[in-house]
Design goal:
By secondary structure, the chain is an alpha/beta fold. It is built from twelve helices and ten strands.
Length: 343
């Protein structure tokens, strides 16, 4: 049985690993029966926290999760997310964090998941065109209606976390109780602001991409041809060895392999243990596509990195720095010139 941790101030207890289901469905593993077996295996190993999103394979992931949780729902903390459009050519008002959209999104997720409540509902990204009071207001109403138990944010910058908390307190609304940011040895940027803010606000933290989009699996090494499958098929430009950033990542991977070998574990085991070493992280989301990947992620589930190992990792990738940003925030005031230039 895995030890459990409290999810912020929600009172909900969760396993230190969460099963991420982004790779279940047509973008990853389209075999529903095999995906259900992987989910059941994770549950049998003590993972009782499952994270999905409506956008994963355009809702197919939620359908698979719903199938897997039949008869086991009461023993699982179920999290999902909404914000992104589900169509390539979306109609107006079919995305974002507005009251109009989120009510529809939650109802649709409930249908696909085959449940009458969601333990943790997360807004998948900030919505720069919707007042945060509007978003917090509808999420508060959804809690009071029994549709969701708690709500959080995902990949929010620190200043938006602070602003949302301030608005919630001033308007007597419920607060974001969790944040879900990317975090791994190659991408430590959240250590500078997001994690300290989350700690100050008593927020639970679910981190994603512990394997750095595959770079910390051990499959991508210097001089080894990249197989076009999984993550590398989804983002081929990220794995181009002629790209300077990719080359730097591959150099660091070689150093990390030495660290892992030195303590007698695999590179994935080292990578998955790293986020859990931060005192603010509640749970690490692992996102396998196959049973073998699940086995590798949980190979040393009880591994605790000692200070000497963490010091060496700090030398390789200094705290608060990022070799790349897996999901850089898209601020409209940077990408839209009309929001920066006086007319």
């Amino acid at each position: 049985m895995l030890p459990h941790r409290l999810l912020g101030r929600t009172g909900i207890s969760v396993s230190p690993f969460a099963l991420g289901t982004m790779m279940f469905g047509f973008i990853g593993n389209g075999d529903h029966d095999d995906s259900v077996r992987i989910i059941h295996s994770a549950l049998d190993r003590g993972i009782d926290f499952v994270d999905t999103a409506d956008m994963y394979s355009t809702g197919e992931s939620e359908i698979i999760v719903g199938k897997a949780l039949k008869g086991r729902r009461d023993n699982v903390v179920l999290a999902t997310k909404g914000h992104f459009p589900l169509d390539d050519d979306p109609a107006p008002n079919t995305s974002g964090n507005s009251r109009r959209y989120l009510i529809r999104a939650v109802e649709a997720s409930l249908r696909r998941l085959g449940t009458d409540y969601i333990d943790l509902y997360q807004v998948h990204r900030p919505d720069w065109d919707t007042d945060i009071e509007e978003t917090l207001g509808v999420l508060t109403d959804l809690v009071r209606a029994g549709k969701i138990r708690a709500f959080g944010s995902s990949t929010f910058p620190a200043h938006e976390m602070v602003h949302a908390d301030q608005v919630a307190r001033e308007r007597h609304l419920m607060r974001f109780r969790t944040e879900q940011p990317p975090y791994n040895i190659l991408d430590r940027g959240i250590e500078a602001e997001v994690l300290p803010v989350a700690e100050r606000l008593d927020m639970g933290v679910l981190t994603w991409s512990p394997l750095a989009f595959g770079f910390l699996t051990g499959r991508y090494r210097k001089g080894v041809e990249v197989e076009s499958a999984g993550r590398s098929a989804l983002r081929p430009a990220w794995f181009d060895p002629t790209d300077p950033t990719t080359a730097r990542k591959l150099d660091i991977v070689e150093q990390l392999v030495e660290v892992a070998d030195g303590i007698g574990v695999s590179l994935p085991a080292l990578a998955v243990a790293f986020p859990l070493a931060h005192r603010t992280v509640t749970s690490v989301i692992i996102g396998p596509r196959t049973m073998e990947q699940l086995d590798a992620a949980l190979e040393n589930a009880d591994l605790v990195l000692d200070d000497a190992t963490l010091d060496r990792l700090d030398e390789i990738v200094p705290p608060g720095t990022s070799i790349y940003n897996a999901s850089p925030p898209s601020y409209p005031w940077l990408t839209d010139p009309t929001r920066r230039r006086r007319r």
